[in-house]
Structure formats: structure tokens, C-alpha cells
Amino acid sequence: MRIAITGASGKTGYRIVEEAQKKGFKVKKIVRKNSKVIDDSKNTETLRFSLNNKDALDKALENVDALIIATGARASVDLTGPARVDALGVYRQLQSCKRVGLKRVVLVSSLCTGKLFHPLNLFGLILIWKKIGENFLRNPFFEWTIIRPGGLKESEIIDLENIDYTNEDTQFKGSIPRRLVAKCCIDSLSNKQSINKIIEVTSSSKNKKISFKKAMQTI
Ligand SMILES: NC(=O)c1ccc[n+]([C@@H]2O[C@H](COP(=O)([O-])OP(=O)(O)OC[C@H]3O[C@@H](n4cnc5c(N)ncnc54)[C@H](OP(=O)(O)O)[C@@H]3O)[C@@H](O)[C@H]2O)c1
User: Fold this and answer.
1) What is the value of pTM for the model shown?
2) Which Pfam families match (predicted)?
3) Cα–Cα dist 38/161, whole Å
4) In the chain, what are the domain boundaries?
């Protein structure tokens, strides 16, 4: 499988790249001109351009089987970030997918998208803009999957972390290591039952262990 990953320089993005490599996928990492990309190993290529550059984006997305969107506004005093990145940036990526006929898209979003009264919205109404980004993807043209994680953790200690997979608007708190979110993104590409689903994920040692495949049969 050939996939493109935007936001591949991010803390979730680079882990998605690694999980894709483990599966033997060919990966196009799409990043900004000055993005710091951690690893440049086998089966990956790094493409540097702005997501506003339609031609470069179209060219990058031609002949790939799936796009994973792991872009997200970085915390900043610029409160327009969420609108620019989480809504408009997603829209631009999806328009490009339509132009080149790429249907399979996985979007890393967030728990609580669409909620107005939430402390995270102090950063440029991020949960509102993320919901708008999600809605652009929920379109019959696409075979879409939206992964909505709880608070993201850097921990790589995941052996005792079991994922609670639920559908839309059922979890409102909790956290999950970025590594597990990355695995969910890659698992969804190999599982047709994840198509046209919003999958909310948090993790804890208290959850019962369940495979992604089994979870997709129940949500
Ligand atoms: N933090 C949390 O607890 C949390 C919880 C739930 C969901 N999420 C969401 O999960 C996703 C991944 O989060 P993360 O913390 O792993 O991400 P992150 O490390 O902040 O990385 C964000 C990525 O987006 C890229 N990006 C930002 N602005 C961009 C722009 N204008 N054009 C192109 N690329 C741009 C960054 O590129 P550069 O490297 O060039 O900056 C980077 O690759 C995000 O959508 C985030 O909102 C986060």
C-alpha cells in the first residue's frame, strides 16, 4: 500500500510513519518547508511544500492509496491557527483528494469536537474548527475514518494500555499515548469496517483488551 501522511513531522505524525513502515507501506511524508522530520529511512520520501500549494499537493497525492491527515494547529499566540489548519487546511487536502480521485482518508481529530463550552476552545475555538474539518470529510465521495483521541501522551509504555474504542460523542475525558493513536490509524487502513466511522479512543490499564478488528464489529 502507498500512503501519504500530512503532519508527518508531528508527534503523532512521525509515529504514524513508523507504524506504516512496520507494515511495509510505502510512505510519502508531506511536511512544511522548515518542518523537522525525525527519520528519513527506507520506503519513505519527504515532500516539502505548503498545503496552500495546490499543484504540489495534487502531485503528491497522485497514485497513493490513502491519505492520513495528522496536521493540527500548534499551540501559539496566533489564535487563527485552528481555523487555518484544522478546518481550512483539512479542506484544502480534501479538495486535492477529489481532484486526483483519492477516496480513502483517515483524519486524526479529537474527543469533544463541536463542543463550544470547553477549556480547549480558549485556543482559537479549536474544537469548533476541528468539527468543521471533520464535516468536510464526512462526504459521500470519501471512504473516511475519523479517529478522535483523548489527551495525547508521549509515553511509549503501551503494553498495559488497552484501548476503549467507542463511537461518536460517547467519551469526553481520558487520554491515550500517541503511539496507540498511530496504530489505530494504520489498523483502520487494513479494516474496511472502519470506513465511514468516527472512532473515539482513550486507553487505560483498566480496560479489557480488545483488537481493533473486534472493536470495529461493535461500533
Ligand atoms: N495534544 C492533545 O492532547 C490532543 C488531543 C486530541 C487530539 N489532538 C490532535 O491530534 C493531532 C496530532 O497532535 P500532535 O500533538 O501529535 O501534533 P503536533 O506534534 O502538534 O504536530 C502537528 C503537525 O501539524 C503540522 N502543521 C501545523 N500547522 C501546519 C500548517 N499550517 N501547514 C502544514 N502543516 C502544519 C505540524 O508541522 P510542523 O512540524 O511544520 O510544525 C506538525 O507536523 C492534532 O490534530 C491535534 O489537534 C491533540
Assistant:
1) 0.98
2) NAD_binding_10 (PF13460)
3) 25
4) 2-218
